[in-house]
Amino acid sequence: MMQARVSFDRELIKAVIDERLFGSFIEHLGRAIYGGVYEPGHPTSDKDGFRTDVLDLVRELRVPLIRYPGGNYVYAFNWEDSVGPADRRPRRLDLAWRSVEPNTVGLNEFARWSKKAGAELMIALNLGTRGIDAARNLVEYCNHPGGSYWSDLRRSHGVAEPHGFKVWCLGNEMDGPWQVGYKTADEYGRLAAEAGKAIKLFDPSLELVACGSSNTHMPTFPQWEATVLDHCYETVTYISLHDYFKNLKNDLPTFLGESVGMDNFIRTIISTADFVKAKKRSRKSINISFDEWNVWFHSRQADEVVEPWTVGPPLLEDVYTFEDALVVGCCLITLLRHADRVRIACLAQLVNTIAPIMTENKGPAWRQTIFYPFLHASLFGRGEVLETFIRCPSYENATHGEIPYLESIATFNRQAEEVTLFAVNRNAQEELVIEGKIAGFEGYKVREHLVLAHADPKAANTKENPANVTPRSIATTSIDKGMLKAVLPRLSWNVIRLGAAGKA
């Protein structure tokens, strides 16, 4: 049985957590919209055609922000196609995913759905095939009260009040040659600066996200960020990061270390942004929007045989395993560790398409394995991140170098008087005993120790067995005289909640 030391102090605050760290993403891709959030005639659908069983699961996750409508879809998106009377909207061929987009669910419909889900929208603008005019017109359509051409057009579409969207993405993955409208860093940086200028002239309070590297393997990383920010530093609020994690070689020790790569990615971009800040002698710091991240590799072979040019084809439908949930848990801990600079993050995506929620057309909806670590982080990871000091054994890995067996972070919700320790035991053979000193939390008791574990790392939740991988409570964790002691099962995601005596 391995031993580890964990300690934290009430007064050592690393960051105040922006709740948008628990955001998500829905793209017009596969069955995310058609057959996912929207399915008229389904037994649970409401008068707008939205599946209420899906809405219930999204509300359960308490997702505060959803990035929309893409993703790769946005690079050739004509936003005007998605508004106005639905029966007069054009059907378009979506080049990104070789699908037919009927535009039945458009901007205003999705905004209505997001309100039902309790989430704000972060709108991605097309800076691939379009540019400044289309961007500024969309902002005016969405956010101006009335009395102008585009705002009055919105009102004529039955939306009297402005949407008031606050966060806008200046394109998507513009460093990617797969994008129609791909640009060099200089070309994109200039366009982002000028589009951002137009949007800021409309409303200086809007938050803008510039496109960073699509992943760490891009040949332009991280020079891309340095060049782009050199052009638009004073205009934008965030630089985006995207990354997806894979286990193509069925190498579990390496796969469980993917969050180490994520951590290095974040640190590199922080350093790059701060270099540009110093170069410009700016007082402003650029924060990070990690607005696409997840495990994604299971469905790639199946996607190659999907018939093109259909509505809502089954694309990117990864069936997630227990080991995927562990990697997602490690990534959530990494995002919390960097919550001082990562202010927005979006799990990609939310329904059916590489998602925590799966549905069957005309059938049920269920929680995938990755639903649970995301749920726990969203519910119990609000408040402040505490500086968390860890000493534990590690293993050497050819891809990621030294990987600690314990991945952990502590958060503190002052309002609820609750501390939560999130922890992953990466060891596939042994339990891990945690002992640690917690300072400033006299009288706190263990409220709950939730564990997600399974004997089979490849176990999944399916329509036939939706509860195959689910969390359970254990009662072996204790606090005595400021010392915490817990046993983490081998290969497990753990949520240890501590609370003030007398509080629920």
What would you note in describing this structure?
By secondary structure, the chain is of the alpha/beta class. It contains eleven helices and 26 strands. The longest helix has 23 residues, at 258-280. Helix 5 (185-202) packs parallel to helix 6 (223-232). The model has no long low-confidence stretch (mean pLDDT 97). It has two domains: 2-10 and 385-500, Golgi alpha-mannosidase II (Immunoglobulin-like); 18-380, Glycosidases (TIM Barrel), CATH 3.20.20.80. The chain has helices at residues 52-61, 107-117, 132-143, 149-156, 185-202, 223-232, 252-255, 258-280, 300-303, 322-337, 371-380, and strands at 2-9, 13-16, 23-25, 65-68, 92-94, 99-101, 120-124, 167-170, 207-210, 238-245, 287-295, 342-348, 357-359, 365-367, 384-386, 389-391, 394-397, 401-404, 406-413, 418-425, 432-439, 444-453, 472-473, 478-480, 483-488, 492-500.
Q: Tally the beta strands.
A: 26
Low-confidence stretches: none
- Please give the CATH architecture of the largest domain: Alpha-Beta Barrel
**N- and C-termini, Cα separation:** 33 Å
Characteristic key phrases:
2 domains, 504 residues, Immunoglobulin-like, eight-stranded parallel β-barrel, TIM Barrel, 25% helix, alpha/beta, seven-stranded antiparallel beta sheet, 11 helices
What layout of secondary structure does this protein have?
Layout (H helix, E strand, L loop, with lengths): L1 E8 L3 E4 L6 E3 L26 H10 L3 E4 L23 E3 L4 E3 L5 H11 L2 E5 L7 H12 L5 H8 L10 E4 L14 H18 L4 E4 L12 H10 L5 E8 L6 H4 L2 H23 L6 E9 L4 H4 L18 H16 L4 E7 L8 E3 L5 E3 L3 H10 L3 E3 L2 E3 L2 E4 L3 E4 L1 E8 L4 E8 L6 E8 L4 E10 L18 E2 L4 E3 L2 E6 L3 E9 L4
